[in-house]
Amino acid sequence: MQSTYETCLPLLLAHEGGYTNHPNDPGGPTNFGITIDDYRRYVKPDATTADVRAMKLSEAKSIYRSKYWDAQRCDELPAGVDYVIFDYGVNSGLGRSGKVLRRALALPVNSSLDAAIAAAHASDYQVLIVSICDERLRFLQTLKTWTVFGVGWGRRVAEVRSVALAMAANSFKARVAIRG
Prior knowledge:
single chain; mainly alpha
């Protein structure tokens, strides 16, 4: 299976932007979407706000690859599904994205990632993408910060859905062409 990481990462980074420290964002100082807590966890245990502000893009890319993409085994997911799970995990946490993937596949939430990956490949990718994005939007709308960030979050989910559906459609066309 061909990795779409190099396609997905710039899309994610476009949504995450550069340095922010919004008073209503519980993540605190954030750069390229990497919060100060994650920077401390993965790069520098005693990082300060200044360290986050000075974070190199290469550091953020490394964190995204190992701690989000690889951790969720996105290379093993169908094209499009990999992107929605990657973006969801970054935006709302790996635990939530994994549970939602399993729920959307009608699997127990404690089922193995191997089972989820196999079920994802056996599913209708586009239906799965829509299901995950619908649940994600419903979840975001319940957050107390929805009034502050909701317009942007809604736009992000819509854009992720659109791109992921196109990726899944192109993947399907490629599979059909290979099968002849």
